[in-house]
Each structure stands twice: as structure tokens, then as C-alpha cells.
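Progress note, project year one: complex with magnesium ion.
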Amino acid sequence: MSRADATRRGAPNGLVVAAHRRHYVVDLDDGSTIECVLKGRAITLACGDRVEVARAHGTGVIVGLAPRTSLLYRSDAFNEKRVAANVTQVLALVAPDVPVDEHLLNRWIIAAETERCRFVLVVNKSDLPGVERFAQRFAPYAALGYPVAHISAKRDATPLLPWVRGQHSVIIGQSGMGKSTLINALLQSHRARTGELSQALRSGRHTTTSATLYRLPDGDGWLVDSPGMKVFGLAHCTREAITEAFVDLRDIASQCRFRDCRHDREPDCAVTAAAAEGRVAPQRVALLRALLSETRKVWDPS
Ligand SMILES: Nc1nc2c(ncn2[C@@H]2O[C@H](COP(=O)(O)OP(=O)(O)O)[C@@H](O)[C@H]2O)c(=O)[nH]1
Ligand SMILES: [Mg+2]
Ligand SMILES: [Zn+2]
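Model obtained:
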């Protein structure tokens, strides 16, 4: 199935809610759930994809894919992985009892920006001692314009409900931050009101899925629980997209002498000048340079 074939056919009638290799679980718009296969190698699907399904002997065959509004993606020179499609928001979890890899955190922000998704930093485990001091660390992110929400997924996740309603969210975070706890809590608070229980179906049979989507019964919101990731490459992004994703540096970068400036050793680099004068955070400049050099490795092996 080519991409053109995939989009030419009838209206999409389902939502991919779990993905494992070439097998998918699709929630059909009539309320039923069906396991599907995807023929051909041209396309890989992700949770959040809208698809058209043809039924054949009790199983489904995916015969169409709707155009995506976004595709959260990670890649390095050797590997690529779709995290979720049609996402509107990235919720990144941190907690005071797990060492935070801020380099990783910053990559998620850039990934969210390149796909025009809202990025929200969620400080979890606010019941633990020392969380106030821990949270101070994230003031620079708030200063960049990213909302910081405080919750205890274990005690009460409801303060996060206004953030997830109507949104298509990916919950992302290092292992141990509380992603599963948060999703369970959010679904429980919904279940209590609606009686919906979609999780049991999935947890037993698809323990090895790389990601799972959970619908929120209020409106069209959903959440994707992504597996803990230790690396998050952005080698597929263009240099322009990466620079544009730095909300604090993009205007400055537009004043560099060279349009393809790497903000490293080029003459008349406005970013390097701003860093030297203390007008921008040195970690952000270092991250920009690192990400730009990764794209160079992929697209220009010299
Ligand atoms: N104290 C406290 N512990 C939590 C909270 N949320 C999760 N945890 C604990 O943190 C550990 C990791 O949680 P889990 O949801 O498995 O994290 P994941 O790896 O990100 O999915 C578990 O022992 C949870 O019980 C919280 O709000 N407060
Ligand atoms: Mg988990
Ligand atoms: Zn520059």
C-alpha cells in the first residue's frame, strides 16, 4: 500500500490505540475494537493514526490512512521510531526522587515545538518532601513560556484534568517518574463518572506494545502512554526546523550573517554574541549546537 493508495480510499473509520510491529489494535467509530494487520511495508502507523479498516474473517486489514496533523518522532542515524500521531500536546513528567536528564527534557521540548504541539512540564510526586526546592529547577522552563503543573498522581491527579480534556496528549518521561500511575489515576477519575473501562482489554493481551492510547470519554480527548526513553534523537529535523523550535533563540538566530549559520565558529553569529553577553542561557545554545551537529551527521556525512 503506497501513501497515495492509503489516503485515496474511503473515510477513516477508526483510531489506532495500540501498535506492535505490524499489528495494531483499532477502536472503530461504531464502538467496537478490532485487531488489524497492515499489508505492505510503505507505511508504519502509530497510536493516534486515523485509519480505514476492511474486515476479513473476524480480523481487520488497514486499507487507508488519514493525513496526519502531527507526528511525534524520534530518530538517530540508524533508527527511527514514531511515538504517536495527531498529537496536540506533550506532557513531560519529572519527579523529585528520580535524577532528571535535562538534556532529554530539552529534546522533548524541541520535538513538541517542531510538531507545533503544546508542551507542559508536569512535576509529579508533589507529596514527597523537598519538592518545592526541586521544582525551582524548572523556573527557566516557565520563563521560556512552558506551563509547569504540579500534581501527585498517587494522591490526586484531578488537577491535570483541565490540561488533558479535549487534547491529544502524549505522556513522556524517564522510567519511574509516574507515567503509568498518572494514566491509571486519570482513567479512574473518568471511569468513576462514565463507567468506561478500556484498559483491561489491552493490558492483558498486549503487554509488549510500545505505546498505548487511552480515550478520555469527555469529548475527543485521548492520552498516549509512551515507554520510557533514554534517548530521543532529532536527526530527521531540518536545521531550520530545529532553530525555529528554540523559542528564545530563533529571533536572534535570524540576525546571524549566514543563513545556514551553525552558531558555532561562524563570523558575526548573533547567537554566539548573545551568549557572550549573557543575554541567552548557555545550556540552550549548547543544546542548539548539539542538535544541529546531529542533523549534519545524518544529512552530510563529511
Ligand atoms: N510518592 C509518590 N510516588 C509516586 C507518585 N506517582 C508515582 N509514584 C511511584 O513512583 C514509582 C514509578 O511509578 P510508575 O507509574 O511506574 O512510573 P513510570 O515508569 O513513569 O510509568 C511507583 O513506585 C509509583 O508508586 C506520586 O505522586 N507520589
Ligand atoms: Mg510505566
Ligand atoms: Zn549564528
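The chain has three domains: 3-65, 71-225, 239-299.
The pocket of magnesium ion (ligand 2) is lined by residues 179-180 (CB under 6 Å).
No further modelling is planned for this target in the current period.
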